[in-house]
Amino acid sequence: SLAEFYKTAWPQFDPAVFVDSWHLHRIAEHLEAVAHGEIRRLLINVPPRTGKTGLVSICFPAWVWAQRNKGPLSGPQVSFLYASYAEQLSLEHSLKTRRLVESAWYRKHWGQQFSLVSDRNQKGHFENNRGGYRMATSVDARATGFGADILVADDPHLVKEAESELVRRSVVQWWTETMPSRLNDRKTGAMIVVMQRVHEEDLSGYIIANELGYEHLMLPMRFDEARVMINGARYETAIGFSDQRKDGELLWPERLPEKEVAALEKELGPYGAAGQLQQSPEPRGGGILKRDW
């Protein structure tokens, strides 16, 4: 599974101690569903520093390339185009993926699947000899003439720019008007957005409000039962997942316990905590004048 791959691959690209969590397995299962052709549009909203980038942007391509064609987007022939709000961030993620697939551990287990092509082996764009590649770019880059089988936006918004309507609209237009045409095959290609919420009208907000057909995996820092109840039942994703935490239960107490989360909530303030931690952004007024008041 991708979750087990992530856990075992971790030392190849990160020196920190790996801390497992149930939510990492659930994110991984939805990514697997993308590779198997069960989900073609996926929106993931999770708090920052909760392992999303390691799974989605670093390990997912390496895992897909290690598969033996178990789905339309599975195997070393699959191509990826990743974008973040800053090119340097995208390059850092790309470099870690390349470091992973070139590691002795990876080559030992899946080296027979493919090899990287020497004349196209840069940190921001590397290819294998089976036709697959991973390319990194930024939201505002103009060099997006390339296509790919899987398009991924990992943190498309810079938090401090979220208040700018012009910047938000630019990000939304880039993803909804430019990127869909970059899919190599509209019938099988997939698009993934993974981010923390930064504004009511950010890219996630647009996708949800306009019902663009994305499967929505939303994992807040503190579980809010009222937000996932639909006609008396908990919301389920297309692969049958529903968040079964108790009301107020933390997402990752092993790494982010109550004391740390409470301090973070205080530092971010009501507005920042509502969006970045709870994935439920409110207007500035709502963070100052409580609706309960």
Folded structure, characterized:
This protein has 293 residues and is an alpha/beta fold. 37% of the residues lie in helices and 16% in strands. It has an eight-stranded mixed beta sheet, with helices on both faces. Strands 9-10 form a two-stranded antiparallel sheet.
Q: What's a concise summary of this model?
A:
The chain has 293 residues and is an alpha/beta fold. The protein is built from ten helices and ten strands. An eight-stranded mixed β-sheet has the order 3-4-5-2-6-7-1-8, with helices on both faces.
> Approximately how much beta-strand content do the residues carry?
15-25%
Shape: globular
Radius of gyration, rounded?
19 Å
Cross-sheet strand order for the largest sheet: 3-4-5-2-6-7-1-8
The chain-level mean pLDDT equals 92
Largest beta-sheet details: 8 strands, mixed
Class of secondary structure makeup: alpha/beta
Please report the number of helical segments. 10
H and E order: HHEHEHHEEEEHEHEHEEHH
Q: What distance separates the N and C termini?
A: 48 Å
* Uncertain regions spanning at least 5 consecutive residues: none
Q: Helical content, roughly? A: 25-40%
Total count of strands: 10
